[in-house]
Amino acid sequence: MKLLQKAILPIGFKAYGVSAGIKKSGKPDLALFFSDVPCKAACLFTSNKIQAAPLQLCKEHLKKSKTFQAIIANSGNANCFTGRQGLLDAEKTAILAAKALGIKKESILIASTGIIGRRLPFEKIKAALPKLVSGLSSQGIEQAKLAIMTTDTFAKTAMIKCQIGAKVITISAVAKGVGMIAPNLATMLCFIFTDANISQKALKSSLKDAVDNSFNCISVDGCMSTNDTVAILANGQAENALIEKEKNLFTFKNALNLVCLELAKLLIKDAEGASKFIRIKVWGAKNFPQAKSAALSVANSNLFKTACYGENPNFGRIIVALGASGVDLKEKDLKIKVSSLKKKDILVDVWLNQGNSSAVVYTCDLTPEYIRINAEYN
Amino acid sequence: MKLLQKAILPIGFKAYGVSAGIKKSGKPDLALFFSDVPCKAACLFTSNKIQAAPLQLCKEHLKKSKTFQAIIANSGNANCFTGRQGLLDAEKTAILAAKALGIKKESILIASTGIIGRRLPFEKIKAALPKLVSGLSSQGIEQAKLAIMTTDTFAKTAMIKCQIGAKVITISAVAKGVGMIAPNLATMLCFIFTDANISQKALKSSLKDAVDNSFNCISVDGCMSTNDTVAILANGQAENALIEKEKNLFTFKNALNLVCLELAKLLIKDAEGASKFIRIKVWGAKNFPQAKSAALSVANSNLFKTACYGENPNFGRIIVALGASGVDLKEKDLKIKVSSLKKKDILVDVWLNQGNSSAVVYTCDLTPEYIRINAEYN
Question: Is it the case that residue B378 has pLDDT exceeding 70?
């Protein structure tokens, strides 16, 4: 297995991206991903109680349809807190795209990212659709990846190939951040494409595992977006033996984990204002949820993150965050090791000595630049 | 009832503060509060699982003794994460102070605030004790209030007088912050003195109510300290009819609430780097815990706090924080009102329309100055 940060689409997938004028800047803001044949799909969404219109529509489609063939996504507008009108706009977008692609409306997934509370400029999307559809190509991920960016400073892609029986399958993915750090840019999108032949059940459990170990293990500012969406489409074009269980499923899960973790790390590296990449590992917790809670409590501590920015090795701030996490621990059992704060990559290791579970979380420092970006954003 | 920000000690109390050399700066760092007669006492401590040595010792004394006569507190060192040595140092301090005051060790409460993980300089405290005890006077709150400060830019006191039957009772209090914002300055201390004659049960429930409605309703950076302590001593010298229940208890509770809320607001006003004072009120929640959770979720959102600093009225950030709070709400029922962000005092009102409960939380903005202070602190 070889993991790359450059992605080309697997067999049978096409993509494209255009500037529809949703962003004031005129930068690309409308992306389309398409499979020549129907795909199995799995999706995970934010657990925020406010969910943007496209998420609501996706959930409806996932109930109604068993196969999917396209994902349409825009940046520059989150279509969130837009009420009934927002749902109508999302639906009209799906209907129009389905018509242009010659597929059913229910086999389209839809995603939006950008500012909250403003109406989606549907007419602009409508006007841009013909160009978007006619541009679809097997190389079009290059345009599509740009069209989902908001304050991202670079596009994020990853690809892996692995052997399933006699065949090689490919998993390619594109993501945009900027972490969970900018919920009103609303926020994290990740679209994953594979030519693997895999059962619906195996696809769903693989995605859940991969997300739990990657996107759910990163934190920029502890804020949770209304639009976070991770979707995977599997079109079976690699013609491998069906991935269902045991060795093949293990191989697929492992590959998908690597792709998602790579993208999650890229999101943290491109977090707003970040100057440090911080890995926090908690060892010896009673169970995985406790290990993760302890690590996240440190990752979300403004005081710890500010100390990292200041290169100020103040271990008291780690202790305080651990104690406040609610996780079982005793002062006398606690051991903490922190690598040099002078370097760009910082490693924090915490031993709770309460059990045998561990968890890793990735985060970044809190900087004046984060405040500048978010104070001035409109 | 008249609430003042200037406090004089109630009948029978004395205080003093000196420079013991615990702080490198040479500023006052050791305070003593003393009552001529034994007092009833009630205390509340941080819920952080790491608890500093003085908190552990206080809890032991509260179990062993029914009356208290003194509080000794130092700044500049939290005596936290100092293991068995820390407990010994706290105990030796209590023993020495008790001897100098001619009282039992168990009738002393002890508190520390300052940096975590360094040994308490007991010898310096020992050397300063004679001067501290001989300086005790009914006006000594002026010195004592300075000796508990860390990065506070001003001393915080409040006082109220109220009528209980034919007598006037006084509640005077002193607090230091700087909010919950600097756990490694470890952090919030509040000492309250009253000459009221009040039952143990009434004193305890009054303190809990007051803290729930004041110190537990403020947040600077969501960080929870290891040393937070609120203590009240009641010496009965006002000779009022015993406060136990009904009207008299209601009056006392009301007065204590006002004192604590005043100090809580002062803590927020003096929060590190803060340029805005923000009041968040959530209306129409199903119950009080939900109202408070929703309000705290907004108060702890870095994005919302940064928007306040930038005077950028971005209501999407409030919506995101509310949705992430886990509280029952529906997009269509939500109503939000925000006063002008250009002013120093910002009012946020949120109507959930799910029930009849409300809660108020106070916080401040997140500024580059907060980062500067906490990045450079050693």
Answer: no
- Tell me the chain B residues in contact with residue A222 when contact means C-beta distances shorter than 8 Å: 222, 300, 302
Residue A312, amino acid = N
Contact at CB, B302 and A222, closer than 8 angstroms: yes
- Check CB contact under 8 Å for A370 and B116: no
DSSP string covering B230-285, please? EEEEE--TT-PSPB-SHHHHHHHHHHHHHHHHHHHHHHHHT-TT---EEEEEEEEE
Contact B376 A310 (CB under 8 A): yes
CB contact under 8 A, B226 and A323: yes
Digit-coded pLDDT (tens) for A280-333: 999 999 999 999 999 998 998 888 999 999 998 778 889 988 988 889 999 889
List the beta strands (DSSP E) in A132-200. 156-164, 167-176, 189-194
Task: Residue B79: name the closest of B47, B120, B22 by CA.
Answer: B120
* DSSP H or E run through B77: strand B68-77
Judge whether A352 is closer than 8 Å to chain B, CB to CB. no
- Whether B208 has a pLDDT exceeding 80, the answer reads yes
Rg (CA), chain A: 21
Q: What is the pLDDT of residue A369?
A: 86
Pairing of strands B218-219, B357-364: parallel
Per-residue pLDDT reduced to its tens digit, A39-75: 999 999 988 888 899 999 999 999 999 999 999 999 9
CATH class of B2-269: alpha beta
Query: Taking 50 as the threshold, does the pLDDT of residue A185 lie above it?
Result: no
Which candidate from B50, B183, B317 shows the least CB-CB separation from A183?
B317
Q: Which two tokens stand for residue B144?
A: 């004592």
The domain covering B277-376 belongs, at the CATH homologous superfamily level, to: ArgJ beta chain, C-terminal domain (3.10.20.340)
Q: Taking 70 as the threshold, does the pLDDT of residue A362 lie above it?
A: yes
Average pLDDT, chain A: 92
- Interchain proximity A50–B331, CB inside 8 Å: yes
Instruction: Tell me the per-residue pLDDT of B311-361, one tens digit each, with 9 for 90 and over.
Output: 987 788 899 889 888 899 998 899 999 999 999 999 999 999 999 999 999
pLDDT 10s digits, B4-14: 999 999 999 99
Bridge partners, residue A360, by sequence = A281
CB contacts, 8 Å: A368 with chain B = 368, 371-372
Using an 8 Å CB-CB cutoff, list chain A residues near B374: 302-303, 306-307, 310
User: Measured between CA atoms, how close is B267 to chain A, in angstroms?
Assistant: 18
Q: Does B324 touch chain A (CB under 8 A)?
A: yes
Which residues in chain A (303-322) have CB-CB distances under 8 A to chain B? 303, 306-307, 309-310, 312, 314-317, 319-322
pLDDT at B179 over 80: no
Strands A277-285, A357-364: pairing is: antiparallel
> CB of B328 within 8 A of CB of B235?
no
CA distance B300 to B164: 39
Ranges of each domain in chain A = 2-269, 277-376
